[in-house]
Write a structure and sequence with these properties.
This protein has 147 residues and is α+β, with helices and mostly antiparallel strands. The chain has a single domain, classed as 60s Ribosomal Protein L30, Chain: A. The protein is 46% helix and 20% strand. The chain has a 5-stranded mixed beta sheet. Helix 2 crosses helix 4. The protein is globular. The model has no long low-confidence stretch (mean pLDDT 95). The structure holds zinc ion (ZN). The site of zinc ion (ZN) has 7 residues, from helix 3.
Length: 147
Amino acid sequence: MPRDPLLEIRTHRRLTLDEAAALHGHKGPWLVIGYRAGVRAVEVLKPDTEMDLSCTVKSPLKTPYTCALDGIQASARCTLGKLNIKVEESNFIEFSFTNVKNGKMLKLRLKPEIPDAIEKISKRSIAEASKWVEVQPICDLFEEEMS
Ligand SMILES: [Zn+2]
């Protein structure tokens, strides 16, 4: 049977990290943090379509931390336009994803040492900091909690 390109988009397609950077305008470490969190949420919660995940982001409401929001939108496809992402101000950073079809939830809380590590590398080079975030094992970036 011929593939329905629209169905393909709904079920399989997500932006690459470089496409996410094109959407956002730059490839910074916080964009990559959000992007990787979204990829992890999709891996664990296995949404069938773009409507199945919702995300609550707790974060300081200032850049560069909020750059993570665009990464999440690109990879988990929880978007402002679909109203399946919301943001709450907080002094820590945590992304809670829910598969609204089955109620399964994944909480990714950024490890407290990560912001300092990112800042330190960013002072040398933003590109280097982004690369560093890209290659860290996910379990070194986030404390994970499934429920
Ligand atoms: Zn940014």
